[in-house]
Design goal:
The protein is α/β, with parallel strands linked by helices. The chain is built from twelve helices and nine strands. The strands form two sheets. Strands 4-3-2-5-6-9-7 form a seven-stranded mixed beta sheet, with helices on both faces. Strands 1-8 form a two-stranded antiparallel sheet. Helix 9 crosses helix 10 and helix 10 crosses helix 11. The N terminus is likely disordered.
Length: 274
């Protein structure tokens, strides 16, 4: 039966972007940020060697571990097979139906040290099931975390910021140095907490996401010219749409708020329908 030592002997796989958390003080801070209760279901993404897992076993009603690495998933199955309420799913959290994994009635908490090379797809997959989650506490590469938490008008604020903040509140919690991981990455990481909005700002339409990316296709240009370029429409039409949404056509795309983007989509949709 593999124990924690044997799991710890498994070498990180570069192809999966594995950097295992080893700093237990950081792990404890992440778990505290989850606000666990004994009746809550927790879904951990990429438990790896179990730095977070071991702190959560027995502290929640159910602990669902989603691990893509087959060897690590097997280790976790053996290690926790006698622990009631712990389930291991070998699968890719970027494509797995997370609502189905959670179960029919639960509203859970998601947590994880996300691999750098798959963090954004995993985040957006979680947001698809956001109605089923109370909150999520995730570790990202620091630069990505700063973009997620940036305010409109900040240099880091872009399409990613807008799309996530139109669906959830984002809080930057703390940064983690490379020394907290094995192997040591070349960059810093940061932990953020996401709380799904009670009412989405983003319309339930994939066209909204495409429009936001179009708006930010030329981030150094004016919103008018960037939107014109991204949507393939005239600058005058782009200006008219922005003005109807209450946005200044001469501002930068980074200054367009999620609410203005939602109004812009409404105006653009009406224009398409005409």
């Amino acid at each position: 039966m593999p124990d924690e030592a044997s799991s710890g002997s498994r070498r990180p796989r570069r192809s999966l972007g594995q950097n295992f958390l080893k700093d237990q003080r950081v792990a404890a801070r992440i778990v505290r940020a989850c606000g666990l209760t004994s009746e809550r279901t927790v879904l951990e993404v990429g438990p790896g060697r179990g730095a977070l897992t071991r702190l959560m076993v027995g502290r929640c009603a159910r602990l669902i571990l989603v691990e893509k690495d087959a060897g690590l998933a097997l280790d976790l199955m053996h290690r926790y097979r006698e622990k009631p309420g712990v389930e291991v799913i070998e699968g890719d959290a970027a494509t797995l139906d997370l609502a189905e994994a959670l179960g029919p009635d639960d509203q859970g908490v998601a947590v994880g040290n996300l691999p750098y090379n798959a963090a954004t797809p995993i985040l957006f997959n979680l947001l698809e099931a956001r109605a089923r989650f109370k909150r999520a506490v995730f570790m990202f590469q620091k630069e990505v975390a700063r973009r997620l938490a940036a305010n409109p008008g900040d240099r880091e604020y872009g399409a990613l910021s807008l799309l996530v903040q139109a669906r959830s509140q984002v809080e930057m919690l703390f940064e983690v140095p490379p020394e907290g991981f094995v192997p040591k990455p070349k960059v810093w990481s940061a932990v953020i907490r996401l709380t799904p909005l009670e009412k989405d700002i983003a319309p339930q339409d994939p066209g909204f996401d495409r429009m936001v990316h179009a708006l930010h296709s030329g981030p150094r240009k004016t919103a008018r010219n960037s939107l014109s370029q991204g949507l393939g429409i005239s600058a005058s039409k782009a200006a008219a749409l922005l003005e109807a949404a209450g946005a200044d056509p001469g501002t930068r795309p980074c200054c367009i708020t999620p609410l203005q983007a939602a109004d812009l989509w409404m105006e653009f949709s009406k224009d398409l329908a005409d």
